[in-house]
Amino acid sequence: MHREGPAVNIQPTRIPDVLLIEPSVHGDHRGFFMETYHQQKLADAGLDVRFVQDNLSRSQRGILRGLHYQIQHPQGKFVSVMRGEIFDVAVDLRRSSPTFGQWVGETLSDANHLTLYVPEGFAHGFCVLSEVADVLYKCTDFYAPEHERTIYWNDPDVGVEWPLDGPPVLSEKDKSGTPFANAECFP
Mean pLDDT, to the nearest integer, of 123-141? Predict the structure, then answer.
């Protein structure tokens, strides 16, 4: 017999299109169970999105990835942490948006089970707060490296307040990003 659980709890962040999703977690002395993704429950709660690709990254403490986006084939992302803890960031790159150029950040972890939905039109990045973090994210479009862009993680015009203990470890791609003022943006 199949038993339906309660609907997921979806809350807007201070940028209303970026959503914080709290699943129902059922636990006892053996551990816990939760649905990490349920298309119908999300659609019933107002998030009717089609995902086409899943990605998994593993990073060590102090690693910062981002701020990435695809100018063509933009990707919405459904970000969860399977192990560890991250500070996850979305920057609004939609010129027509009242929150253009603003950012929002949320702590996601294997302890709080939260998921962040970052819609298309946003740059995305995260820094690792735990010794190691496994980050799983679903995407609404396929990876298209020829259309990928990077904004400087520490661009003063964006002003992300990263909770870092020192300088982050960056990839070469992230070291050679673009200033926000020169970034290709969405209409």
Answer: 98
Q: What is the pTM of this model?
A: 0.92
In a domain, 83, yes or no: yes
pLDDT, tens digit (0-9, with 9 covering 90-100), for 68-100: 999 999 999 999 999 999 999 999 999 999 999
Query: Which of 69, 117, 137, 152 does the annotation list as catalytic?
Result: 137
* Residue in the structure block whose two tokens are 């809350």: 11
Cα angle vertex 39, ends 110, 99, to 5°?
75
Question: Does residue 37 have an active-site annotation?
Answer: no
Q: Provide the token pair at 186.
A: 């969405």
CA distance 149 to 180: 11
State how many domains the chain has. 1
* CATH code of the domain covering residue 51: 2.60.120.10
Residue of 38, 68, 113, 147 marked active site: 68
Tell me how far apart the alpha carbons of residues 90 and 104 are, in angstroms, rounded to a whole number: 6
